[in-house]
Amino acid sequence: MGISYFKRQSHWGSVKGMANTQIIILAALIIFISCSAIYFYSKEQKKAKQSKTKKTEKKDKSREHYRVHVSIDESLMEVKKMGAVNVDEIIKVKVLDVSTGGAGVLCDEDFPLKEMVFVRIHFYLNEELFSFNGRIVRKIENPERKKVIYGVQFLNLSPSDETKLIKEITAIQNERRKIAIK
């Protein structure tokens, strides 16, 4: 056996030591790359989530339904119910704006909105009669004029009524564009 056997053993020992060092370095490199990938991925996910939140906030601020400003004087609003009390009172109102989601109306009456107020609103738009059930969802008081502006949300709008209303709103908008172009 002699000296050559021990030289071979020490050579293999140094090869094994180098292999272990390379494995450790390789493992450390894999861990570093994995951690970096996870960090950058989570950073991108956070940016995407913030961007989505901002888009949602912008969407929430914009109206769901296109609203057209009008001035329809001879309109009626039937106050059907205030809370649990049946009212059945008819009031003249002026429709200020309308969309498929609801209408803004100017009124002499001041209703307390502590309880839900259910109404039925009747108005003409381009010589078409519309009558919709709704609920008062907003109130803007104007003490100078002694009038109140109510936001009325339409309830249970049928698809045919919605289509008819969209048609008339679009007609008004198109007419206004023609006038603006001239």
Automatic annotation (TrEMBL):
| PROSITE patterns per the UniProt record, alphabetical | PROKAR_LIPOPROTEIN
Q: Which domain of life is it from?
A: Bacteria
Protein name stated in the entry = PilZ domain-containing protein
Keyword Transferase listed? The answer is no
Q: Which intervals of the chain form a coiled coil?
A: none
Regions crossing the membrane? 23-42
> Which residues does the UniProt record annotate as the domain PilZ?
63-167
Q: Which organism is it from?
A: Neobacillus notoginsengisoli
Q: Name one GO molecular function term.
A: cyclic-di-GMP binding
Q: Which UniProt keywords apply?
A: Membrane, Transmembrane, Transmembrane helix
